[in-house]
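Summary for the funding panel

The consortium committed to producing paired sequence-structure records for every protein in the target list. Below we show the first two records in order, beginning with the earlier of the two.
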Amino acid sequence: MTEAVLLVGGRGTRLQPLTLNTPKPMVPAAGVPFLAHQLARAKAAGVDHVVLATSYLAEVFEPYFGDGSAHGLRLTYVTEDEPLGTGGAIRSAAGALAAGPGEPVLVFNGDILTGLDIPGLLGSHRRAGADVTLHLTRVADPRAFGLVPTAADGRVLAFTEKPQHPDEMVTDQINAGAYVFRREVIDAIPTGRPVSVERETFPGLLASGALLHGVVDTAYWLDLGRPASFVQASADLVRGVVRSPAVPGEPGEYLVLPGARVEDGALLGGGTVVGAGAHVAAGADVEGSVVLEGARIEEGARIRASMVGAGARVGPRTVLDGVVIGDHAEIGADNELCDGARIWCGTTIPDAAIRFSAA
C-alpha cells in the first residue's frame, strides 16, 4: 500500500474573499475543486490511501469526496479542532496510517500545483535510505520561501525560512511542499501543540544527525496562495500546460461546463472556465479567467486574469483585469477594476462608480 497525507486545513486568508465560504482546496480550478486534481495525480502515481488532514470548514470535504471510491482511492478524514501547524497536522493524521515504522508516507501541501514525478520522488527516497526526502524546486526570487541548500549527493545541508538578508541567499532551491517521511519520523513529532515542520521538525532532524535528502525537480510548480496564482493555475490546467486527469475535458483555450450558457458573439480564451449555470452574454470578452457557477457576465464586459464568484454579476461594459469578485457580488455597468482589486462577497458597486482600483 502507498499512503499519503494531504494537508488541507489552512484558512486560506491570502485568497480571501474566495475562501470566506469555501476552504482553499475546494475552490474550483479548471472546473473541479482544486483538491480533485491533487487526488487524481496521487492516484495516477500509485497512491491508494489518502488521509485528508482538515480543520477550516472541515465539514465540506466528505460530502463531496465521500470514501474516495469514486476517485479510485480510499479516503480517511482527520480533523483538528484547533490548527496545530504543518507538523501537528501530519502527526494528527498518523493514527489513520497503516504503514509500518520504516515504510514511506507521502505528504503534500494542499495549495501546490505541480507536475512532480511522484514515483521518482519515492524511488529517490528509497535509494538514499533517507529519513525524510523533500521535493525542491528553483525560483528566481526565493525570499518568500524556505531555502534548502544540498550537497552534490542530495543531502540537505540547512534550512532558512523566508530569508531577508543577502548573506542568507545561499541557494535558489526552495522547499516545494511535497515530502516522503519514514513513518517513525512522523510518530516522533510532538502531540498536543503547534509544530512547524519547516521551522522545527526539519531543522531538529538535521541537528540530530538524521538523513534528509533533497530532490530538485524542475517540472511545473506553482504556489496557489494568492488569487493571481490560483487563476493562473486554473488556466494552465485547462490549456494542458500542466496535466491533470481530473480536468473534465480535453485541453483547449476554454472550458464550458454543462449547464452554462455562452451566447454567440462572446469571446472566450486563455484557459477560461465558465461554471455550471453561468451566463456569458454576446459581446463579452473573457480571457484567462474563472467564472464560477451561476455568475453572469453581461454584454460588452471585458475580463482578464480574474475570478468571478458564484452567483456574482458583472455589468455591461465593465472591465476587470486581475480582480477577484466575491460570491453574489453585483458590479454595475461601466466600471473598471484592476491590479489585484478584491470585491467582498455580497458587495454592490453602482454603475460607473469605479474607474480604477489597485491593491
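The next record, for a separate protein in the list, is shown here:
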Amino acid sequence: MSRDFYRIKRLPPYVIAEVNGMRHAARRAGRDIIDLGMGNPDQPPPQHVIDKLVEVAAKPDAHGYSQSKGIPGLRRAQANYYQRRFGVELDPESEVVVTMGSKEGLASLATAITAPGDVVLAPNPSYPIHTYGFILAGATIREIPTTPGDAYFNILDKAMAHSVPRPTILIVNYPSNPTAEVADLEFYTRVVDWARENEVMVISDLAYSELYYDGKPTPSILQVPGAKDVAVEFTSLSKTYRMAGWRIGFAVGNAEMIAALTRVKSYLDYGAFTPIQAAACAALNGPQDVVEENRQTFQRRRDLLVESFTRAGWPIPAPAASMFAWAPLPEKMSNLGSLEFSKQLLEKAGVAVAPGVGYGEAGEGFVRIALVENEQRIRQAARNIKRFLAD
C-alpha cells in the first residue's frame, strides 16, 4: 500500500544528494575524490576537550539521561562566551538552551513557534534547514535576498505589505551559508528596529561566528540594544572547535522563545550525552588558542584556493568569513547550470562541490566550495580543474 505523507510531500528532492551519491559511487570504485562539497571539518577537536570526554565517560554515574536544556555548567559557559566575545549579558537559566547542534535547534524552534499557515521570511539562497524546518512545521516561506543592504529592507517592507497573513518570523544568517556574505552592526540595528516596529520575531544563525578573516570579527545581533525583545541566536561548537559530530549548539536571547524551544525539546529529547556536554564546557572555558589556530588554517586554505583556482582558469571571489567560497561557474561552462557542472567536475576532475541550486533557485549559476581539504589537496584540485577546463 502506497501512502502520500503530508510533510514528505512538502519536501522537494534533495538536489545535493545527487552529487553526494555520485561521489560515494566513485569512491567505492576506487577513485580518489577531492571532497570540497560538505562542510565537515577535517581536523580533530583540541586534545583537552577529548580528554575531558574520556574522563567524564569513565565515571559510573555519567551514563544516565541528561538535561534536555543542557547542564547548568554548559549554559553558564555559553553565557560567559557571549560576555567576553560580544559584551552581551545572558541569563543562563532563562536565555540559554543547549541544542543538539544548531540544525536540530532551528527545527525544534520552528516546531515551537510556528502555526500552520504562518508566513516566514527566509533568505534565498539559504541553508536548507532555514526554509524546510519551517515548511515541516506547516509554515509558508516568502523568500527574501541574502545580500544585506537597502534593497533588502525594501523587499522586507513589500513582504509585510503584500503577504496574507503578515509574516511573523524573519531568518538571518551571517556569515551566510552558502554565500559567505557578512553583516555589520548597522545592518543588525536596522533589522531589530524593523522587527520591533512590525512585531516580527528574528532568528539569527551565527554558526560561523569565529571563522572570520582579515582581522574583521563578525558581530552578533544581540549586541544591538533591545535585540533580546525580538531575537534569538544560534551558535555551534561544530566549526569553532572542530566538534561537528559531537552535535552541540546553543540558542540564546529572547526568553519567551527560549522557553518555547526548551519546552518542545523536553518532549523530544533527553539532551546530549553528559560527557559530551562536560567536554563542551572544557572547550568554551579552556584555552582558546585553538580558535585562532582554526581561523588561520581556514584563512590559509581560502587564500590558496582563490589563488590556485584563479590561475587554473576559474576566478573565485575571496569569502570574508565562513568555511566556504561561493563561486560563479566558470564562464565557458555557465550554460551547464550548477548541478550539471558539479556532476562533470566530479566525473572528469575528481573534485566534489555543492551545486548552488541546492540552496534555492537564487543559487543557480554558483557552487559552494568547502575549505575542508588540506593545502596539498587544494593544489591537486586546482591542477585537476586546470586540465578539466582545458578540454
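Regarding this second record: The chain has a mean pLDDT of 94. The first strand starts at residue 34 and ends at 35.
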